[in-house]
């Protein structure tokens, strides 16, 4: 399917091109506008293909909001009905800034992902700056179920941004979990945990004014009682789903700090809406153990998918290989080729492609550091150059295969399609 450029604020039934940058909320509009004049080649979209905007007759008419739920019980019933209509997805690609973009989401879906989040989008810049919108976010009809995630600290600005995307997603998600310094400076993400009335107002305003459900991605407090009170407040404010990252705001290093599955289980037991677990998911055995331990309705994985987008199909990297696992016949160069082909189909900025290639081929670059140095020194990327680089890695040999694990449920059609594409 050819990408299609979107008329401002208007839905497109074939492909939606909506993109948003993720800088700090304290950035001025003038500074945000300056970002549109960057000359870094990695900031350019990887294809110059432009297709006419959607014709007026393709624009979906406005639909009245459904009546508000008459009771808390009805709100909970609606949350579960929506979740089940989506197929009750269990294996979900977590939101990752600059990394959970459309081509990567589609690659993960080929290998078993049931649903995916967009990267975190900046609600104010998304709603104000059309050019930046058209740079950072793409979706297509096959990209469902889809969570579109925003960071925000103003309920009205968040609603304005959410209204743009609601025809093209299954949840509008609010980021209450980002622990980075940029979130502290911009006053969003996990730093809103210090202002629960504002958190509540953000959720209530979206819940009362959107056609699609609201979800929230959170971190835990050091004290379990505070975490449970926080989660209950989100449910009462109108959230239809909560994804819980089992680390505190100060536990930024996922390799140093294990996620607290006991805390996630406590949240699941306390809430009546769907709950997703996030943290410590490196392979499918972790998925199985997490679901059993927490009782969660699904799991999210982030960093491990960047190295191994086939994780949800039961493939392991050498680091997590079990004695009984065998060479699967698939390796990370195959996945990189698939990813590049998806980028040609769904163009994104070169910086995203550069980042993914680094992470996907990291083990191969350790064996052939001279190729990594050539890659780092290449100022302007092209698909031809990247395909040649991957071919060179294969010819040099010494690569590491992915090993096959046993998935918790069959994704045979998806896996077969992915393998076939990787060998094409």
UniProtKB/TrEMBL annotation:
Residues 93-377 form the DUS-like FMN-binding domain. It holds the Pfam family Dus. One of its GO terms (molecular function) is tRNA dihydrouridine synthase activity. Keywords: Flavoprotein, FMN, NAD, NADP, Oxidoreductase, tRNA processing. Gene3D superfamilies: Aldolase class I. Belongs to the Dus family. Dus1 subfamily. This is tRNA-dihydrouridine(16/17) synthase [NAD(P)(+)]. It comes from Brachypodium distachyon. The gene is LOC100834475.
């Amino acid at each position: 399917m050819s990408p299609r450029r979107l008329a401002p604020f208007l839905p497109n039934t074939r492909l939606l091109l909506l993109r948003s940058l993720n800088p700090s909320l304290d950035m001025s509009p003038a500074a945000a506008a300056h970002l549109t004049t960057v000359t870094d080649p990695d900031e350019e979209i990887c294809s110059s293909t432009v297709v006419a905007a959607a014709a007026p007759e393709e624009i979906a008419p406005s639909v009245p909001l459904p009546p508000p739920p008459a009771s808390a019980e009805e709100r909970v019933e609606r949350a579960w009905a929506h979740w089940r209509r989506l197929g009750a997805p269990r294996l979900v690609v977590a939101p990752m800034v600059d990394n959970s973009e459309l081509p990567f989401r589609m690659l993960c879906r080929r290998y078993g992902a049931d649903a995916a989040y967009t990267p975190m989008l900046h609600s104010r810049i998304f709603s104000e700056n059309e050019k930046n919108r058209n740079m950072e976010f793409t979706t297509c009809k096959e990209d469902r179920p889809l969570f579109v995630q925003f960071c925000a600290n103003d309920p009205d600005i968040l609603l304005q941004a959410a209204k743009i995307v609601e025809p093209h997603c299954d949840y509008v998600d609010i980021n209450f979990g980002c622990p980075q310094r940029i979130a502290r400076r911009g006053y969003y993400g996990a730093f809103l945990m210090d202002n629960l009335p504002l958190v509540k107002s953000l959720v209530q305003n979206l819940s009362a004014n959107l056609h699609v459900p609201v979800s929230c991605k959170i971190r835990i407090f050091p004290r379990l009682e505070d975490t449970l009170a926080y989660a209950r407040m989100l449910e009462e404010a109108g959230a239809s789903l909560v994804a819980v990252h089992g680390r505190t705001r100060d536990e930024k290093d996922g390799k140093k700090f294990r996620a607290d599955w006991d805390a996630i289980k406590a949240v699941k037991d306390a809430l009546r809406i769907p709950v997703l677990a996030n943290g410590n998911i490196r392979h499918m055995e972790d998925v199985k153990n997490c679901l059993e331990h927490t009782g969660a309705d699904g799991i999210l994985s982030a960093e491990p998918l960047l190295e191994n987008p086939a994780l949800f199909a039961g493939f392991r990297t050498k680091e997590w290989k079990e004695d009984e696992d065998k060479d699967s016949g698939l390796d990370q160069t195959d996945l990189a080729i698939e990813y590049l082909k998806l980028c040609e189909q769904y163009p994104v900025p070169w910086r995203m492609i550069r980042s993914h290639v680094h992470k996907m081929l990291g083990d191969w670059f350790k064996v052939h550091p001279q190729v990594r140095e050539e890659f780092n020194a290449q100022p302007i990327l092209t698909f031809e150059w990247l395909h040649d680089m991957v071919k060179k890695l294969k010819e040099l040999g010494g690569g590491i295969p992915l090993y096959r694990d046993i998935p918790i449920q069959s994704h045979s059609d998806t896996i077969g399609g992915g393998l076939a594409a990787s060998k094409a």
